[in-house]
Design goal:
2 domains; six-stranded parallel sheet; alpha/beta; single chain; 336 residues; Rossmann fold
C-alpha cells in the first residue's frame, strides 16, 4: 500500500493559494503534484512560490494525469457539481470546497457519482478538524453544559468596494451560486446541526438582496423539534462577526470572532456556568486546520480511516440551506 498520495488542485482560487496548497505541502501524507488553471500567467507565481512543477492549462488535463490520486476543487460554487462528477468518473478522490453544491439535488448527484466510482467525496469544512472544535464537541457530548438548548452563530464580513464593483465576482452572481447564505451561512447551519446532533424540522429567514438577486445579508432560525433551537447571521455588508455559542441547560460555551478560521494562533474559548457573567478561559495550542483536513482525507483515501465528515452530512446541510433560501424569498416557515 502507498504511504503518500499525490494531489491535483483544480483552480487558482484565493483559498487554494493561501490555505490549501500550503497545507498539502506541509502534510505528512501528501504531495502537491499539479495545479490546473485557465490562466497560466496568473498561476506562474503560485507555482514558483510552492515549487509546483506541473501546471496544466485545463482542468481536463489534470484529470487525465494518472499520477493524481486526489483532487481539491476550489472553483466557484456552480462548478462544483460538474467538475466533481468528472473527477470522480476519472477515478480521483475529491475534496470539494464548501458549499458542496448549489442545491441538495446537485449534492445527491455528486454523492451518487462517488458511490458509482468507488471514490471518496468530502466537503471541505475545515473548522471541524481544528483541535478547539473537537474539544468543544467533546465537552458538549460529555454534558459539560448539560443538555444543548441553543446554538447562536454568525459569519459576517464587509465586502471590499473593489469586490463589490467587480462584474465577475461570483459571490454576487445568482447563476454562479452566489450569496451570503451559501458563502458563509453554510458554516452556521453546519455548526448548529453538529452540536445539536440532529436535523431541523422547520426554518425561517429574512434577507436583503443585491440588485442582481443574491442575498447579501441574512438572518435565520432553525427548530430541531425538541432538540433545541439555532439562530444565525450571514452577511457581505456588516462588520466582522465569526463566532458561535452553544448554550445548554447547565452552562454555555462561547468563542471569540475567529471561531471558524483561527489560523495557527492559540485558540481560545470560554465555558460559563448557568449563572456566570464571565466564563473560564480555555486555550488550545495553535494548529493548521487545513493541514489536518487534507491529512485526514488522504488517510481515508489510503484506507487508514473512515471519513469524519461523510457525504450524507453534506447533503443534509444542503437541504437546510435550500429551505432557508426558500423561507427568505417567500417569507414563510419551511418545514423539512
Amino acid at each position: 500500500m502507498a504511504e503518500t498520495v499525490k494531489w491535483g488542485v483544480m483552480g487558482n482560487a484565493t483559498i487554494a493559494r493561501k490555505c490549501v496548497i500550503p497545507a498539502i505541502r506541509k502534510s505528512r501524507n501528501g504531495e502537491m503534484h499539479a495545479l490546473a488553471t485557465r490562466s497560466l500567467a496568473q498561476a506562474a507565481q503560485v507555482a514558483a512560490d510552492h515549487h509546483i512543477d506541473l501546471v496544466y492549462d485545463s482542468y481536463d488535463a489534470l484529470l487525465v494525469d494518472p499520477d493524481v490520486d486526489l483532487v481539491y476543487i476550489p472553483l466557484p460554487n456552480h462548478l462544483h457539481h460538474p467538475w466533481t462528477i468528472k473527477a470522480l468518473e476519472t477515478g480521483k478522490h475529491v475534496l470539494c470546497e464548501k458549499p458542496l453544491a448549489c442545491s441538495a439535488k446537485e449534492a445527491q448527484e455528486m454523492a451518487a457519482a462517488a458511490e458509482d466510482s468507488g471514490r471518496l467525496l468530502m466537503e471541505a469544512f475545515m473548522y471541524r478538524f481544528h483541535p478547539r472544535s473537537r474539544r468543544i464537541k467533546q465537552l458538549v457530548a460529555e454534558g459539560a453544559i448539560g443538555t444543548p438548548r441553543l446554538v447562536r452563530s454568525a459569519f459576517c464580513y464587509r465586502m471590499r468596494q473593489a469586490d463589490w464593483n467587480d462584474q465577475q465576482n461570483a459571490r454576487l452572481k445568482p447563476k454562479m451560486g452566489g450569496g451570503a447564505l451559501l458563502d458563509v451561512g453554510c458554516y452556521s447551519v453546519s455548526v448548529a446541526r453538529w452540536f445539536l446532533g440532529g436535523e431541523p424540522t422547520q426554518v425561517q429567514a429574512q434577507a436583503e438582496y443585491h440588485p442582481d438577486g443574491v442575498d447579501v445579508h441574512m438572518i435565520g432560525s432553525l427548530g430541531f423539534a425538541g432538540r433545541g433551537l439555532a439562530s444565525f447571521e450571514a452577511s457581505f455588508i456588516s462588520a466582522l462577526q465569526q463566532t458561535y455559542c452553544v448554550s445548554g441547560s447547565d452552562g454555555a460555551i462561547e468563542l471569540p470572532h475567529n471561531a471558524f478560521v483561527p489560523w495557527e494562533n492559540e485558540a481560545v474559548f470560554y465555558v460559563r456556568a448557568p449563572d456566570q457573567e464571565a466564563g473560564q478561559q480555555h486555550i488550545v495550542p495553535g494548529a493548521d486546520e487545513y493541514q489536518l483536513m487534507v491529512e485526514h482525507f488522504a488517510d481515508a483515501a489510503l484506507g487508514r480511516s473512515e471519513l469524519m465528515s461523510p457525504i450524507a452530512d453534506s447533503i443534509q446541510n444542503m437541504r437546510v440551506l435550500d429551505a432557508l433560501a426558500q423561507a427568505a424569498r417567500t417569507g414563510t416557515t419551511i418545514k423539512l
